[in-house]
Amino acid sequence: DRILLRGLVFHGYHGVYPEENKLGQKFVVDATLLADLSHAGRSDDLRRTVNYAQVYEDIRGIVEGPPQQLIEVVAERIAGKVLREHPGVAAVTVGVSKPHVAVSGVVQSLGVEVTRRRQV
Dihydroneopterin aldolase/epimerase domain spans which residues (predicted)? Predict the structure, then answer.
């Protein structure tokens, strides 16, 4: 089963260039959480699932938090936080992209995606 968080947009100050750290830019995050949702599906009880509103706040805190040079670090921190704070999540895939990048060409966005699993 999967919980999907798609197109989360935040303003952050991550990047290797001084302008990125000073002015900031838009970051888009997608997250897929693997979890057993069958108990919640049968009980209609929020306590039996992963509270995606809290996951959203966890992600926001990292993206809007202290600047990192690499979005790889941002994605890694999000994945780690989700696994630490939400014991019902068995694995998480996090994508972090920058819609506005300085490259010589037309792109919709550039980004990274990481998948991390709970260690048993």
Answer: 3-116
